[in-house]
Write a structure and sequence with these properties.
Helix content is 49%, strand content 13%. The protein has 308 residues and is α/β, with parallel strands linked by helices. This is Acyltransferase.
Length: 308
């Protein structure tokens, strides 16, 4: 960076933004077409080798982002803690839950997981498939893409509910051919104080969890995963926007990972049709969310001291 940019904060900010934006855009256009091209071959024949190659290309794309974080945004301090009973492997199969506050959360997950866990997929909206390169890559890489129908639409056409469930089931089952991390943001939307107040959420730092997606994933994958992992992300200096993060304006990020023990009764239950099981499952998730709420509070208190 030029000496002139160092003297003028605005110029420095513009220079950094242009650098990051250019590298991310260039990397996306470099890595995206091969993923799409290889993905098209799967229309003719499913191939594990193609899947593995696409994951390697995707990890290369993520490594560029991580390089930017480490070398262009070096002011961000990371506080990462992993509970001792959680042993992670690049060959593992994991379900993951996480609190959701910002689009930055996904970048934090990718930054953390690139060298510790298999490629992270997450339940996403079907509408994202129309985003050039990114949306199609989600589909090719096996992200469960959901068409979220309203209650009115389902009431008019009840078969829509079963169709969504079947599509999610197929997407989850396809993951079993390889190592994977499947992420579920249980809150279903990003936390804001307004949403928290509207919900009258019983948690201090979290919105109410939506347990259905986790129940579905555990029903399909539960006896074949290595661990249910809970990630907690805290931004002690305020929840950042995406542009703030990539401009290096996030002083600190704290991440905690813990292993969640899955009770035997959880596996094999019918969340959709068994009201008793559904109530019990929701209570279990509620208790996990209470623990998570307390964890966030303790992390915030630990990090309350101002940055040196």
């Amino acid at each position: 960076m030029s000496s002139q940019a160092k003297k003028h904060p605005l110029l420095k900010k513009i220079t950094k933004g242009l650098t990051v934006g250019t590298v991310i855009t260039g990397s996306t256009f470099f890595h995206g077409p091969p993923v799409l091209a290889l993905g098209l071959t799967k229309l003719l024949k499913q191939s594990r080798k193609v899947d593995e190659t696409n994951i390697q290309i995707t990890n290369s794309w993520l490594s560029v982002n991580n390089w930017l974080i480490d070398h262009v945004l070096p002011n961000t301090q990371w506080d990462i803690s992993i509970d001792e009973d959680l042993q992670l492997s690049m060959q593992g199969r994991y379900l993951m839950t996480c609190n959701h506050q910002s689009w930055v959360d996904t970048t934090v997950n990718q930054y953390f997981g690139l060298t510790r866990m298999p490629l992270t997929r997450f339940f996403t909206k079907w509408e994202l498939i129309f985003i050039p390169f990114v949306g199609q890559a989600f589909k090719i890489l096996g992200f469960p893409m959901m068409k979220r129908h309203s209650k009115a639409q389902i009431a008019k056409k009840p078969e829509l509910k079963d169709h969504d469930m079947e599509e999610a089931r197929k997407a989850c089952q396809q993951l079993l051919s390889q190592p994977f991390t499947l992420l579920n943001y249980l809150e279903g939307t990003r936390f804001t104080q307004e949403k928290h107040d509207q919900q009258q959420s019983p948690y201090q730092h979290l919105l109410k969890p939506k347990a259905g997606g986790l129940a579905l994933a555990l029903n399909i994958l539960g006896d074949q995963i290595d661990a249910l992992v809970d990630m907690t992300i805290v931004y002690p200096d305020g929840v950042p926007g995406y542009s703030e993060f990539w401009l290096g304006e996030v002083p600190r990020i704290a991440v905690n990972l813990r292993k969640i023990n899955i009770p035997d009764w959880v596996l094999g239950g019918n969340y959709e049709d068994d009201a008793e099981y559904r109530e019990r499952f929701q209570q279990w998730v509620h208790e996990l969310w209470l623990e998570k709420d307390q964890l966030i509070e303790s992390m915030q208190q630990k990090l309350a001291a101002p940055t040196a």
